[in-house]
Amino acid sequence: MKYMLNAYRVLLTRARAGMIICVPEGNAHKTASGFWEDKTRLPEYYDGTYQYLRSLGIEEF
């Protein structure tokens, strides 16, 4: 986990001329049998991160 955090920090410090941060849209759809289409992409996993980045003044393109 520490390695992953450090790799993320290094990536963020390498942006010199600009940076693109992609926060994917969540997928709140269920299949006909009642299971999530992709339970790793539930909107609550991404909405907080998106709102936080917007609160910092990061623009959406």
How would you characterize this protein structure?
This protein starts with a helix and ends in a 6-residue tail after the last helix. The protein is extended and about 45 Å long. The chain has a domain at 34-61. The mean pLDDT is 81. Helix content is 41%, strand content 0%. With 61 residues, the chain is mostly helical. The protein contains two helices and no strands. It has helices at 2-13, 43-55.
Which sequence of SSEs, written as H and E, runs from N to C? HH
**Shape field:** extended
Helix run count: 2
Largest sheet: none
Radius of gyration: 15 Å
Q: Estimate the strand proportion.
A: under 5%
Uncertain segments = none
| Gap from first CA to last CA | 31 Å
Helicity, in percent? Answer: 40-55%
- How many beta-strand elements? 0
Average pLDDT, rounded to a whole number, is 81
SS content category: mainly alpha
Question: What key attributes describe this structure?
Answer:
61 residues, mainly alpha
Question: Could you outline the blueprint of secondary structure elements for this entry?
Answer:
Layout (H helix, E strand, L loop, with lengths): L1 H12 L29 H13 L6
